[in-house]
Specification:
The chain has 23 helices and 16 strands. It is an alpha/beta fold. The protein has an eight-stranded mixed sheet. The chain has an eight-stranded parallel β-barrel with strand order 9-10-11-12-13-14-15-16. α11 links the parallel β9 and β10. The longest helix has 30 residues. The structure holds phosphoenolpyruvate (PEP) and magnesium ion (MG). The site of magnesium ion has 5 residues, from α18.
Length: 580
């Protein structure tokens, strides 16, 4: 048995036979042409491009029907490649110079671009190579009149093992036939990962060696929650995961009766359980899992994979629709967090050595107030349709917070002048996800109505561990004593300043950790919808004073491992159904 460690992309456990999915290699014949034949080759290219366009539009249509328009829009990047005029001209030039068939030239030109993209430091551009590669194969197949082997044609349930999967390939999967998928490359925030979560297909990405270590037909177990892939598991492992699968089913069953019960301890200490979303069409899942609202709407996803910016009207529609559907529950809209690992090509971000430490989130918004104001106007206008709150990402000091609030004030005045209604009492909060903000949150508190702790970033910045680098993932410890102390401080300081304090990082959805956070007095837990019943189960299993004693003991421990072991043992006592 071998265990491969990757990046958890979509939760759940699956067990099944491996199917190695090679996006097939296409043999390209080479033949000479004469100058008069150039126009014929150009015509063949145009026809193949049109055919490819129709095929992509068909997939988009299916995606829009099954998952919603926002997911279909992810394929807009493919359409942009097809429309690239410069690429066409490069191909025509190549035809004139080399006088060979268009397949050869097309492949050469696209491969050249792919090579340049894959060498760049820019994470966004690197991730786009998957889109271009997808388009390359589609166009070549159409030029060569070949049928694609697609994941839509699978006839029995398998686990797909691939070097990488493009969003369009992922979109072709059916839960009936694809039990799970694993890939060599890819990050947690790639669109493929997002698509997997929406389809509720367990997935592990960034395994580096999956296609080398796994043979066709081998039995594998995918743990999409932890990021583990077991190849040819031994009987003990199979038993363990079968139990875990059953436990998961048991938890899902409990969801039925937990859904409408409050998130409160045995002695009635109540907390708010909210959900995180990336796109508006995830709202039905939020409601189905019984959330008390949305604690984080990652609005930057509205800006990705498109050639223009979302207009004020478009954003207004998106925010208003989410607000309406969740009303009277709150919806916390985070202003765009672009940069880091989420780049937007039309802005032509410079390649940065350390994008997570660079021109990201509120830094970008303050540098581009023209774009920021449009988003603020849309949020304010939507605020009359429900219970909206707003928060800024990546605040690192007081000036940033003050400047953001100043711009918000100006936009509010502008709307008042125009006679446009908005909720005057909309709460404004700061994400606390930069260590400097955590350490000086007493100074930030007077300028906001709430804090939301972003542990995904707080951990990476406080421990100096890149959150998307699988090589140092072992150092990424939510239970690290430094992290515990930072979080406790933020909650204590927030409460002393009469603010409510939430958490929207992944940590809030971890059952063992939620016990600790409950004891620290966290007011709101926001996590992906599927984790909500699990956290609710933990909260409803204990008295608040018990959770407080857990905090006291955890703070006496000296390493992250010790804290983790202690919390898991405690969880086993109070909610055995959630632990093996
Ligand atoms: C976080 O950093 O914890 C967070 C919730 O924001 P994101 O994951 O979008 O950076
Ligand atoms: Mg963050």
């Amino acid at each position: 048995m071998t265990t491969l460690k990757g990046i958890p992309a979509a939760p759940g456990i699956a067990m099944g036979k491996a199917l190695l999915f090679h996006s097939e290699s296409l043999a390209i014949p080479r033949r000479s042409i004469t100058t008069p034949e150039i126009s014929l080759e150009v015509l063949r290219l145009e026809e193949a491009l049109i055919k490819t366009r129709h095929q992509i539009l068909d997939i988009q249509k299916r995606l829009a029907e099954e998952l919603g328009q926002d997911h279909a829009d992810i394929l807009n990047a493919h359409l942009l490649v097809l429309e690239d005029q410069a690429l066409r001209e490069e191909i025509i030039q190549g035809l004139k110079v080399q006088l060979v068939n268009v397949e050869v030239i097309f492949d050469e030109v696209v491969q050249r671009h792919l090579k340049a993209f894959s060498r760049t430091q820019d994470e966004y551009l690197r991730e786009r190579t998957a889109d271009i590669e997808d388009v390359r194969k589609r166009v070549l197949r159409n030029l060569l009149n070949k049928q694609a082997t697609t994941l839509a044609q699978l006839e029995e349930p398998v686990i797909v093992v691939a070097r990488d999967l493009s969003p369009s390939e992922t979109a072709q999967m059916h839960r009936r036939h694809v039990l799970a998928f694993v890939t060599d490359i890819g990050g947690r925030t790639s669109h493929t990962a997002i698509m997997a979560k929406s389809l509720e297909i367990p997935a592990v990405v960034g395994l580096a060696v999956a296609t080398k270590r796994i043979q066709k037909g081998e039995l594998i177990i995918v743990d999409g929650t932890r990021g583990d892939v077991l190849v040819e598991p031994d009987p003990a492992a199979i038993k363990h995961y079968e139990l875990e699968q059953r436990r998961n089913q048991e938890v899902s069953r409990q969801l039925l009766h937990l859904k409408d019960l409050p998130a409160e301890t045995l002695d009635r200490h109540a907390v708010t359980l909210s959900a995180n979303i990336e796109l508006p069409d995830e709202v039905p899942s939020v409601i189905a899992h019984g959330a008390d609202g949305i604690g984080l709407f990652r609005t930057e996803f509205l800006y990705l994979n498109r050639s223009d910016f979302p207009t004020e009207e478009e954003q207004y529609q998106a925010y208003a629709s989410v607000a309406e559907q969740l009303k009277p529950h709150p919806v916390i809209i985070r202003t765009m967090d672009l940069g880091g690992d989420k780049f937007l090509s039309p802005l032509q971000f410079p390649t940065e050595m350390n994008p997570f430490l660079g021109w990201r989130a509120i830094r970008f918004s303050l540098a581009r107030p023209d774009i920021f104001r449009i988003q603020l106007r849309a949020i304010l206008r939507a605020s009359v349709h429900g219970n909206l709150k707003l928060m800024y990402p990546m605040i690192s000091g007081l000036e940033e917070l003050r400047r953001a609030n100043e711009i918000l004030g100006e936009v509010q005045q502008e709307l008042t002048r125009e006679g446009v209604p908005y909720a005057k009492d909309m709460e404004v909060g700061a994400m606390i996800e930069v260590p400097s903000a955590a350490l000086m949150c007493d100074l930030l508190a007077p300028e906001v109505q709430f804090f939301s702790i972003g542990t995904n970033d707080l951990i990476q910045y406080a421990l100096a561990v890149d959150r998307v680098n699988e090589k140092i993932a072992y150092l990424y410890e939510p239970t690290h004593p430094a992290i515990l102390r930072l979080i406790k401080r933020i909650i204590d300081v927030g409460h002393a300043a009469k603010l409510w304090v939430g958490m929207c990082g992944e940590m809030a959805g971890e059952p063992a950790l939620s016990l600790l956070l409950l004891g620290m007095g966290l007011d709101e837990f926001s996590t992906s919808p599927v984790q909500l019943p699990i956290v609710k189960q933990v909260i409803r299993s204990v008295e608040h004073s018990f959770a407080q004693s857990v905090v006291e003991q955890a703070l006496k421990l000296r390493t992250g491992k010790e804290v983790e072991a202690f919390l898991l043992a405690t969880l086993k006592q109070v909610a055995p159904v959630l632990v093996e």
